[in-house]
Amino acid sequence: MSFADKGGAQLYVPPGHWLTGSFSLTSHLTLFLENGAVIVASQDPSHWEVVDPLPSYGRGIDLPGKRYKSLINGNKLHDVVVTGDNGTIDGQGLVWWDRFTSHSLKYNRPHLIEFLSSENVIVSNLTFLNAPAYSIYSIYSSHVYIHKILAHSSPKSPYTIGIVPDSSDYVCIQNSTINVGYDAISLKSGWDEYGIAYSRPTENVHIRNVYLRGASGSSISFGSEMSGGISDVVVDNAHIHYSLTGIAFRTTKGRGGYIKEIDISNIDMLRIGTAIVANGSFGSHPDDKYDVNALPLVSHIRLSNISGENIGIAGKLFGIKESPFSSVTLSNVSLSMSSGSSVSWQCSYVYGSSESVIPEPCPELKRDADAYGRAAV
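Structure tokens predicted for F3E22.9 protein (377 residues):
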């Protein structure tokens, strides 16, 4: 698809290596990378504009204060296509990763491509390499379609994430392969009091036909920055491999918000540390102004038709005493544990139901809400 024949413009990148700092797109634009075209990100921080932190975060994730603008930017745009004949965008992230681990960053790391407050966006048929932080970032955006992309960063790259739908809705991610250092796909919606105040959820997200690896994180994660809420997410037909965790729901006191109405099905896992994680005490806070009584709601999580081989732990589900995770449903789950695994499931402050689950889940996942309430009294 292209907007060039609809009165829009096309920016054509021919074969070759093209070194650049951050640049911005316009509406009704198609950016097309020919086969053999490589956009190479400058490693000189002076080539990257510095911008204010996002209002739903109040500060940067890496450190307080401002952030470097992403390599390719779309701000308040509509009808934009970034595509090609398998062209490549290389972030040359190593220098950024070294600055992060040595605590020598002046501002927060940039991403490879970012759409902010935009709508009707397509990203397809491209390879994203060595992102300084995120490969594809959708923030405050609607109707974002990501199709046939490859995102790759070193498994040792610190907190690199493939695709991040953040306070965005009507997002489709399909037919893609992501191998990165931390999370392959991470859904977010703002951080503590800033995310609560901004109040824009991530919702109506469909992820299907994906191959995912999050080496030191999770193949698919929700949160932990989820203060605007995350709901109505469908994940179908995902192949998850060589990740610390397979599927992770993360939050903590002070976040507020919710993670609810999540349907995950037809998942194949291989060599995963912990297949399913729900953690109610995960992550840090932007500052000391958060409300400790802002308790997140995690409910109506449905996981079905999941198989796995060489799994370390089937599940670690730890809710919050004051706000237990509820209506967690497991059905037709079969996980083959790796040799030496002694504990299959660990659960607290979570309740739900299960059917045809191997290994046998913890008792909390065999109770309904009333039974859990009686047991907790």
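The chain is about 5% helix and 55% strand.
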